[in-house]
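User: I want to check something. If I give you two sequences, will you return the structure for each one separately, not as a complex?

Assistant: Yes, each is folded on its own. Here is the first sequence with its structure:
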Amino acid sequence: MADEPTQRLAEGRRLLDGGDPGGAERVLAQLTGHPDPALSGEAWLLIGDARYRADDETGALAAWQAAARAGGPSAWVGWRNVARQLVREGELDRALAAYREADRRAPAGERPEIASRIAWLLKESGHDFAARREFNRSRGAYSTQPPVVTYAIIALCAAAFVADAVLTSGASLSGGLGPLGIGGAITWEAVAHGEWWRIVTSAFVHLGFLHIGMNMYVLYLYGPIAERLYGPVEYAAIYLLSAAGGSVLTILVDRQQAAVGASGAIFGIIGVLFVVGRRHHALLGPQARRVLAGMGGYIVFLLAFTFLVPGISWTGHVGGLAVGAILAFILPPTGVPTMAGMWRAPSGEQLQHALPVGVRAIVYGIVAGLLVVGTILATDGRVLGGLG
């Protein structure tokens, strides 16, 4: 019969629920090789449950691993069950890897619970910053959708870094610049001769492993929060304008300075988080609120580090921070509700509405225009000649 596999699954569940795990496994065993991964995966899941109830934890783990490998809609449950069993066995690193596999495949509604499990394992392993990020995600600080813009930026920076290492036969790894770095760095002279793209490209090239490692780690921690708050399109605009703000201040203040790195744009993102937490009061979970509440002290620490450590472009950091803070001050986040947006008149009408898309686009355009004016002033108008 065409529905025999489905009937066999139902019979296996009935026997399992009736307290006959051995009978359930015998009924379900014939489905483990079924070509449909939905059926074979579900059969392996139930067999794992049957073995676990029969105190065969080793056999249960093997069955859940088979369910995970089978694919299909229940594969994420297999990975989750594998992770739980590995936790019971004290295999925390393997459990963490299994939970991450479950997270990749789970429906959106199941991911917060998995994120919480990942967070506890990270905390147990001493990875406090990464644990904080997962706690935030479990409580709604991050979208259920992956932060694609943040990941794309990290990928572009990594690709440029690797390409320079290849082009210089590894010489750039020790802190030098390869062809991409030299061609993308922000310098007054280059911009004055029309190479205006450096205002943005300088944020995608780095000096050595430590430089790119620190920048990408901070971006990985805080970028997804800002991307959730403003959405991928506006987040990308904020990131690029913050990067440009750092570059423009650099060529305005110090014509002799050359600078590279994403830190100006990252300072802009941190400025966004600080202002959103203080001015707009986004409605997030307690862990996420604590992250935003701690931004003030973090900014003080970063600025102290900027001015005390030689060789760091303070203009890039301050310029990026200023642009991000200004944008966040004017534009409330659109990806999460805010306290101001919750106020209503006695009639029930919402008192404060989100700024229309057109108005928000004008704000971004004005900031971009001001940066263009700053570039022209910094180069004595020469950039116009170079563009011509």
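And separately, the second sequence with its own structure:
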Amino acid sequence: MKPEEKFRYLFGPVPSRRLGLSLGVDLNPAKVCTENCVFCQVGRTTELTVARKEWVPTAAVLAEFDRWAAARNPTDYVTLSGSGEPTMHAGFGEVLRHVKAAGPFKTALLSNGSLLWMPEVRREAAEADVVKVTLSAWDEASFARIHRPAEAVTFERLLAGERALREAFPGQLWVEVMLLPGYNDAPEQVKAIAELVKSLRAEAVHLNTTTRPAQAGVVVPRVPEAWLRTVAAWFSPVAEIPVFSGKAVSPVEMSDAGLIELLARHPLALEALAASGGAEVAAVEQRLAPLVAAGKLGIEAHDGVWMVRVVLA
């Protein structure tokens, strides 16, 4: 994709720790979601709801994708993710079907799992090649503390919905477990989560901690990598600790608008941003310097990692 091409609902492709090079499809206005997670990188949820409707125009999303695909741009996955929970969009299944019909594109749905208790949501989710769900709690109290969900979203519903999807879904089910210091990283807590994850019979388990500064009004540090590697073996299958892969457009070549659009939806470590496009870190710092000076981007340390993000107004 040419750096100057602008899209409203597509972003990237971006380097993904799970999906290689991933073209994001954002079906939510910022910030509409079913949850207000303490670790969210996008920001505080301003409309906390379980309402399912056409939050953004489906026809406009499909037209943008067709324009992107016509340029024969490379990507490993077309991924429904972005500013909120994608299954809130009433047309997310239509988007998945359209992408699959357009060519040999693999599709992924990154979901918090909160609406999978609805049969219609599970039917549409099954259109994806990969569905990634989240399971980072072990009971109602821990779920409420970490995810701060809408009233209709309960841990019981979340777990039942994820289990029901597993029974009917022929594709790859991945489970992301987000470990947070003081929330769910104690040995007995991790073991309780691992036991529930086992019941989902997932093809892969991804063990993560905060890699970008949380923007939801809570300071959440990282769990040490050594602890992640220690507890990974407690999961079945053994949990992976994902790393960035894929090759995107060099950030040095991107327009100001392109950089801001990318980082607004997907804040990145400075080194990951440079590596994604095969650029030197020093060259990326030089490219970002005018935007930092103008107060549009910020580069800040997060547990020893320099992160690049859009400065919130």
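Because they were folded independently, the notes below concern the second chain alone. The longest strand covers residues 10-16. Residues 10-248 form a domain with the TIM Barrel fold (CATH 3.20.20.70).
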